[in-house]
Amino acid sequence: MTHVFHRSPKSVLPVAVQGSGAYVTDDSGKRYIDACGGAAVSCIGHGDMRVQEAIQRQMAEISYAHTSFFTSHAAEALADHLCDATPLPLDKVYFVGSGSEAIEAAIKMARQYHLERGEPSRKLVISRHQSYHGNTLGALSVGGNPPRRKPYGPFLLDEPKIEPCFAYRYARDGESAEDYALRAANLLEEKVLELGPQNVVAFLAETVVGATAGAVTAEAGYFRRIREICDRYGILLILDEVMCGAGRTGSFLACEQEGVAPDILTLAKGLGGGYQPIAAVMCTDNVYRTIVEGSGSFVHGHTYSAHPLACAAALAVQQVIRDDDLLANVVARGAQLRDRLEARFGNHPHVGDVRGRGLLQAIELVEHRDDKTPFASQRRIGAQIKREAMTLGLMVYPGAGTIDGVSGDHVLLAPPYGVDSETVDLIVERLGYAVDAAVAG
Ligand SMILES: Cc1ncc(COP(=O)(O)O)c(C=O)c1O
Known about the structure:
By secondary structure, this protein is α/β, with parallel strands linked by helices. The protein has helices spanning 37-40, 49-61, 73-85, 99-116, 137-141, 146-149, 167-170, 177-195, 222-233, 269-272, 285-292, 308-323, 326-345, 381-391, 421-440; strands spanning 16-20, 23-26, 31-34, 92-96, 124-128, 161-162, 200-206, 208-209, 216-217, 236-241, 264-267, 279-283, 351-357, 360-365, 394-395, 397-400, 409-413. It starts with 15 loop residues before the first strand and ends with a helix.
């Protein structure tokens, strides 16, 4: 009997009682390797004393100060740290409490930017199918995850979408990676011209697609062409790095590896690493100055924006990443993880693709490998793999509707940045057993 309205009310959940490094322990004493950080959140693992001490220090100073009265040392220092962590020209940081809030703030910020410039007709945000930007109504409106949108269709704005850059599923037979990248990016230009550039606020995309399609990276050159199109039509580029940012792919921002700088960028999961709920919207000096030198302030704000405890925790998490040189480990262990996944699943009859970057990797499940036929969606193969994996003491993050919101299944892995080599081997070994057991079942 529970009074909690659970996310999955029909499943009986174990109670998490302890977290340490890459492991979570439940109340029966069973240990699970946290190979997905919950939903790619726990970037430095569980129970780091340095973060606990930073939260305690902040609590001893002050726990809460409303942002219309005060700033805090923690918020100032965290913003300095984030701007310093990337070579890209992102100079200002607006703090909020979750990834969805960050997306809401980002699209409002983009709209206000155009208003300040005297372009009130710009009201549409173009985004991509097979994307996820959050569960609040604004974030769902710009998201391309059909099952999460379906019940709330009547509440949502009908924001325009284009196809993602998803080579395994969307490239044509015989099409080169270069040609496909260009064709996929040019869909944006077609959409802008169809809608009228004077009506478009921004293009929004996950730099690496996370939960909806499973660690999908764009082909080289895609984002550079996207940037050109945005510049040509005066459209802001918003990159959603709620899941893939803050070091998850081996650079502080995933877009650093694409050779593009966005105008606005969102961060969340790896920012606070699960120690506190926190998210951030980073923007260029141009966006900031246009708003501040225009009407004077961004018309937005939440009660818990820039919460001092959350900022102190996130700063400590980011310092751990820097002090322990964890991005080098993300690159090394990411390469090992890919290697092991290729070795275990590269010829597996029910794994069609192994993909991702750094410590954000996925396998896509298929009924038939040769023609990429997915499993019937009623089979819920990803959920079965998760169940088998939990039995084996492994946490993985499954997703369904990988191809078009209805068909296709994947399993996402996002272990902590400090994961060691033995644990990487163990993750792949257990995942192998879980996939085989689920397919046989
Ligand atoms: C890319 C992306 N954007 C936004 C969100 C929404 O974040 P939150 O669940 O913190 O609201 C998520 C969450 O999974 C995400 O992966």
